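Q: Two folds, back to back.
A: First:
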Amino acid sequence: GGCVWIARLVRLLTQMETDLRLEIVLVARDPERLQTISDHCAVLVADRPSIRLTCAPLSAALRNAQICVLMLRVGGSAARDLDERFPEKFGVAGDEGLGLGGFANALRTVPVMRNVGGSIRSIAPECAVINLVAPLGVTTRALLDVGVAAVGLCELPLTSEERLLGILPAAATGTGLRYAGLNHLGWFAAQPPHDGTFLEAAVAGGYVSEATARRYEAVPLSYFTKIYENGPPSRSAVDQSRAQQLQRWADHALSRMRASRKSDDIIEMRAMPWLDRTLVPVIGALLKNTSWHGFANLPVAGGNSWCPQGAVVEGRASLDSGRWTLAPQAPMSERVTAFLQASAVAEDHIYRASLSPEPQAEVIKAIEVSPFPIPLQARNSAARAVVEAAGQYRHDGSSG
């Protein structure tokens, strides 16, 4: 996914302390646009003779590849904008990874990920694949199901835990936090007997509403508030969505690149902690054959009663000598467990829908079981809207 934001990743890679010789190959569907970005990024590595940067079609890029990072978006910003907007007519927030918008994104993206995964499996079967494609759980599952050794990475649990550890009661220092969840739907809780004071501090600090803390006895990631509590934003038809805002910045940066002007100030307008806090450290650990500990999206470990077989969950994970280990999901309250179970089953139905030529029946099942508050009488029309939104930007995932 050779977008303008790749410039930030390339710059971070040049700052990585390693004496290894690196070849960075950029891949995207628009060769003219990619060449502009590649030329710009080549300037960033000009003073690092140990780094070579090129662009190529996927099949050529995969030959002898050791690490493959996937950052594509099927349909681009237009598809994301649709996913953020169409759910609002059903009284719920729109998002590219969760709810109705996430469902539509999954339907159009999973077939592409399976296609890309097939290319990886046949050309570079030993390649370590790092997935950053939304919706992260189902797209990582798509890669795993076609035989690719993939992991999904997201920085949000790491950065959220860092903030929450700062509010732990002094007596709880060193006890840490429990974590369980799906991508963007994770939950933190303190170790007993400090859970009550932790929740009080989280409410006081604005990390969770008092109602949610009382109901679930845990602190969710920020997407719970954004998607499940706040509902759709109040805006007019002409207000920019997040997708439109990001596209405007990207277009500006690209025009600067074409004019051979410095674009770093534009790139810096967007915070991208998933690059510097998670992706680059993991790449460094893979290249240097060292360890990394954090959070990752991986196939569910045994003994998880709330998640369907074959699903991908998010949890504490370790990378050692190129091998990933996912820790068991921490025990949570009955209501958190029920919420996660409903979300995981809905995600499972959507994954099945993405593989079906007639996806609507599975989409309806996903909406019925999802914690999203879709009115009963609107579920069929919501399912049709999901399928229609997915179909507007569907393609076969071929590369070149």
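A: Second:
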Amino acid sequence: MELFDLGALTGATPPGSLRTLAGQFLTHSNAHVRIPGAMPGCYAIANLSDRQYHEEMDGVSTSGLKAILRSTAHFQAYKRNGSNDTPSRRFGRATHAWVLEPDVFWDKFVVWNGGRRQGNEYDAFVDKHPSKTILTADEFERVQGAGGSILSNADFPLKAYLFDQPDPTVTVREFSIFWEDPVTKVKMKARLDAGRLTAPLASAFDLKTTDDAREHSFTRQMFDLHYDMQAAVYMEALLHFTGEYGPFILGAVEDKDPHGSNFFGLD
């Protein structure tokens, strides 16, 4: 694991062909467009929902690989049941959407200001918003705090990486890549939180919430939760789609006030 200059990931100018591609497919289209990758058999799909990616698209993901590391029985259980939802995962999803998908956050989440999650009023609120994840006022306040921290961290210009410079079409968000592993012939898939697909350095970004974003603590978590394997898989996805390896950037932000944040670049 090596560190690299995160600042090198900003300031890139996209080549004309990819700029045209991005303008056509990645920012102005709601269709599920299949975009061919650099290597044979690899393709990406923009505007694919999270549910469609997990439930409808073939391929082994990092989540599946993590399960099979434990046992084949755990892998089969994962395929049957997916991942169980928890308050921690709900907070992570909300922070993820607040930072990476601010334009559609309120399509996916709604805030309950009525106190405890019980009673007739709460039941009626749930019925009124059947397709949305419900956050409490406290959870939403923490989501805003975590999002503000990671976006304002001076160590890496995340907001520019995601939205601003040099051209918003250079960076993709919620971008699904599919390919076949050349050695095992297993169909693989990866869903980038965000990524740069152009020179000088293609890269993938993933946002993680944690209880401790300090380097010594998060590095232990990185290996306990197999983020190193996720980095390897995402770098393979970049290789197959862009034709070059690129680094994997982890943005870690704490789930409680004062929401300390940190960035880790894995090569």
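Q: And?
A: The first strand starts at residue 34 and ends at 36.
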